[in-house]
Fold Proline--tRNA ligase.
Amino acid sequence: MRARQFFITTLKEAPADAEIVSHKLMMRAGLIRKLSAGIYNYMPMGLRVIRKVENIIREEMNRAGAVELVMPLVQPAELWQETGRWDKMGPEMLRLKDRHERDFAMQPTSEEVVTDIARQELKSYRALPKNLYQIQTKFRDERRPRFGIMRGREFLMKDAYSFDRDVEAAGKSYENMYAAYRKIFDRLGLTYRAVAADTGAIGGDRSHEFQVIAETGEDAIVYCPQSDYAANIELAEALPLLAERAAPTQALNKVPTPGKSTCADVAALLGTSLANTVKSLVLATDEVDETGAIVKSTVWLLLVRGDHDLNEVKAGKVEGLKDGFRFATEAEIVEHFGCKPGYLGPVGLKKPVKIVADRTVALMSDFITGANEVDFHIAGVNWSRDLPEPDVVADIRNVVEGDASPDGKGTLAIQRGIEVGHVFYLGTKYSKAMNATFLDEDGKPKHFEMGCYGIGVTRILGAAIEQNHDARGIIWPDSIAPFTVAICPIGYDRAEDVKVAADALYAELTAAGIDVILDDRGERPGAMFADWELIGVPHRVVLSDRGLKEGQAEYQGRRDAEATKVAVTELAAFVKARVGS
Amino acid sequence: MRARQFFITTLKEAPADAEIVSHKLMMRAGLIRKLSAGIYNYMPMGLRVIRKVENIIREEMNRAGAVELVMPLVQPAELWQETGRWDKMGPEMLRLKDRHERDFAMQPTSEEVVTDIARQELKSYRALPKNLYQIQTKFRDERRPRFGIMRGREFLMKDAYSFDRDVEAAGKSYENMYAAYRKIFDRLGLTYRAVAADTGAIGGDRSHEFQVIAETGEDAIVYCPQSDYAANIELAEALPLLAERAAPTQALNKVPTPGKSTCADVAALLGTSLANTVKSLVLATDEVDETGAIVKSTVWLLLVRGDHDLNEVKAGKVEGLKDGFRFATEAEIVEHFGCKPGYLGPVGLKKPVKIVADRTVALMSDFITGANEVDFHIAGVNWSRDLPEPDVVADIRNVVEGDASPDGKGTLAIQRGIEVGHVFYLGTKYSKAMNATFLDEDGKPKHFEMGCYGIGVTRILGAAIEQNHDARGIIWPDSIAPFTVAICPIGYDRAEDVKVAADALYAELTAAGIDVILDDRGERPGAMFADWELIGVPHRVVLSDRGLKEGQAEYQGRRDAEATKVAVTELAAFVKARVGS
């Protein structure tokens, strides 16, 4: 490609609404242009990257035996009503009416449509297993779209759906996709982790997120450097930090802690470790009648150590909290604890509450909690002696760096990540809701065992940039760079030898199948170099009149600190070797 | 590709709502599946064809110097309001509101968005010419979607937009696209014509439709077999069929024609040629005040020869009819002619009307028209003698087969066609409405000269099938067939020599870059052959145990009446030669 023919529009400054580096650099490099909040034009430079990402995904999905199709963007409400998601999905699902006032949704995902296809087309066990995928535009009407195309409203996603005869076969389909995803993210040239993730209401252990490692990532991912354990923070199991409960050594002791309502402040005031304090969190659950009116509420006290954080996903797995919970109101707290939040604890309750202790808290002794009296805490608290044993002991906290790995093979570390892929075992959730069956070998209809597998295509661009950039701009992995090599001739329009050498190199590299851009715009060298560094082309060759007189050109990899002089006679071979072609 | 891994779902019968052959065959071959009226899943078999069509278009667009981008499906109302099309576009444009109640449209086309990009990004004449294109989903909420994906609501279109400095440069861009379209349709393997088309309000002569020739086509296209003249029927110029007006030879003669209200019936009754009769069509135009209330209506009488049809597009170019017309009401007709429709004519009017005569009618003498009295006509009518010369003489009829070609090089023929592409010079219509300017060499802002260039990607599938099918199914051109070669082994699962030979041929053809499907489903031969004939794979190889024992296989092209025996040793070379690989 020649630059004059192409479309290059770099900006000196990113627009004010670009908060994170990938958004800023995508705007400055002219990869995308905003049309409306969360809705972007994919400009020619950005589209080249998208197509390369798409092609890697497509090749590996095909290699894994998946079959590509395309399901419509505008989908009739009826299918969404069959699974109940027409009502359950919030305003993220964009609903619309056609000219005949019929209801439709813009697809945020396609479980309903693909299950409808399966129940019509996959009639026999002989047609299974089958994995259908599409690379198709999605729309999710986010309340606050941000981060450019990392969390846009209109975006591109690869979504795949597997259909199997039974749970065992579905497990194989899952493993097959997991392996394909590893190949995809390896080929994309990104540093990532596949982490176990929560399966929510589906249950089972078959859910993995593919997280691109980046300091700016929104997700905390937990891994064990000594083993292959990796999970997202919602799922990662926190083992108790104490082997057993020590015997009490202190008497119960109410201490004044004026104005100190956090565990950290209290520990500092009392000159003790934060690990001796216990944090109180008050939740509530409601029972409702058929009309939806609340007939009874229950208040819960959840206890985690002062240096730990409550994990709401884990709390949601506690018996009694599974059907949903909320934080208690101040009125409910005062009613049960006789005190406003900040000085709460499990000792001396005004009305009984259900107590859930984290595994570690259940093994603590001589600990410090709120006294249920403003400006007072109690030290020397001990289970059994000062209060009953907890109603429930459970893992309800986030792991922290240094915790023992649940696989017993080392200690945990935490990184930040950006979720770009997800493999998920669905079971018969959708096939039962839509009565999607096939005839099994025994002649009986059975519900498909399903899995779903997503990759955020446009999101990968943002994640790749968050992971790979410097002060000058983007640093694309070779496999998804908009161009692999930029040829920068200085004085292309005036120095004949420069033009001849640049054209020859361009022709030779292009013939070798390398994706080259020849910058024939006639920009000054500084502006030209800045553009290609901002855009992030991984290999650059500079040809100048002066260099050519000495028979030399300059090569510089995007991560190289300095340029390398290369004899013009060796140039094409040198560049080919660098790009691994 | 192996058939078991792929997704093949053929049907014996097409669904009842499939009216035309392409729709029936696409459904039966499993290329598409209906999700909702005019909204289809592109099934794996159909998607392969779509991708091949896309790739040919993309390659030729890139070769022509156009640059690909993608513009969002969901576009803000504000841009459409700038050009006034938010109000002008009918219910075909699907409008929707996001969660914040802001107005958006699903793109039916993208002139507004691309012009917005140009005014922001193309600031200097040095950036011109530029041609931006996308291959992107479109949505048009047709009142009565039909013909499968030939006239669907959600469909795939390539739309390109050129930006130029001046009219001359825009003409070059137009010619460039015209040439690219010829290459595209040549490579698609379709028989087509590029025909001149009406430019509507834009004016000028720069509009061509690319029509795939098919008897079932909706459009009538006119061409001259003796020259390169071709136009759609709306535009094709009808020359007068008479060189000059002959002197009157008959007296005016009112004749009873009871119950004969058509020219054909009257000519038959009177034993004369239809070419001696004149047909009367009554139109009306309205003048309105600022409130839209009609302040004055004018009635027009349009006269074409009895064997000709009025061309409404041409009528709309007559001075006085340019701003829109309607057919007159019966009350208006009775008021002006003193008679109900069926026996109208230009002689003996009750109130004056504007008379527009077709060029041929203006040169007729001794002709027959209605007498403005039920059950009576008048013969021997002559201009000047019996009625004043017409107010306007113009080309207002459709050409008919055998008319002289407007280029003077022969006579016209008429074919049916399906419009699959359109190149159109837009001028400054959009750039002025949106004030999209660039700085020209003289330092002054100028409006872009624009062109737009569409190809209906999914429509091409339907058009190709309408043109290429037989009783057994589709006959794809090689370049867009879902698979180029089908290998049909008889007894793949039981005859080892068949399996070995089939696998070897599959490997060798695949290695040669040929798109092969190996039918390993174990279907009976009849069912297997019927499937591939229905799906329309252009080349088929049959391998059987019996044949192999004689060292032979069978090759059959999809259009061949019989199979050809080929020695197994020559088979791969033979097939490669047939597919031109």
Summary: Chain B has three domains: 21-237+414-465, 253-394, 483-578. The first helix of chain B runs from residue 21 to 28.
